[in-house]
């Protein structure tokens, strides 16, 4: 998969996660892409841990990326000291 495809998947995953979690602060375009890309790694790793049968991290796809990004934003929201709204 090319670099532009990774960026596109990261951006889409980050946007969907921001809509679901509502982080309470402005991430910007690069922050959204970063959350999506890191979310892809988290989603793939969680899939590997939960399945236990050699789940391929690269096969997480857009759903794994979104779920990973939601997890990241949810933990970030919990850690900022404000109650969830």
Task: Describe what you observe in this structure.
It is a single chain. With 85 residues, the chain is mostly helical. The chain has one domain. It is built from three helices and no strands. The protein has helices at 3-21, 28-51, 61-79. Helix 1 packs across helix 2 and helix 2 packs across helix 3 (61-79). The radius of gyration is 13 Å and the shape is flat. The chain starts with a helix and ends in a 6-residue tail after the last helix. The model has no long low-confidence stretch (mean pLDDT 78).
Counting DSSP H or I runs of 4 or more residues, the number of helices is 3
Number of domains: 1
Category by helix and strand content: mainly alpha
Summarize the main sheet.
none
Please provide the count of β strands: 0
**Strand residue percentage:** under 5%
Mean pLDDT: 78
Spatial extent as radius of gyration:
13 Å
Unreliable sequence segments: none
Which geometry do the CA atoms define? flat
Could you give the order of the helices and strands?
A: HHH
Give the fraction of residues assigned to helices.
Answer: over 70%
What is the CA–CA distance across the termini? 38 Å
Topology:
Elements: H1 3-21, H2 28-51, H3 61-79
Helix pairs in contact: 1-2, 1-3, 2-3
Short description:
This protein is 73% helix and 0% strand. With 85 residues, it is mostly helical.
């Amino acid at each position: 998969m090319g670099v532009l495809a990774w960026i596109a998947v990261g951006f889409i995953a980050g946007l969907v996660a921001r809509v679901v979690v509502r982080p309470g602060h402005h991430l910007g375009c690069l922050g959204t892409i970063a959350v999506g890309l890191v979310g892809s790694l988290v989603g793939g790793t969680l899939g590997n841990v939960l399945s236990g049968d050699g789940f391929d991290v690269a096969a997480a796809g857009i759903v794994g990326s979104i779920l990973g990004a939601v997890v990241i934003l949810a933990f970030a929201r919990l850690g900022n000291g404000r109650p969830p709204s």
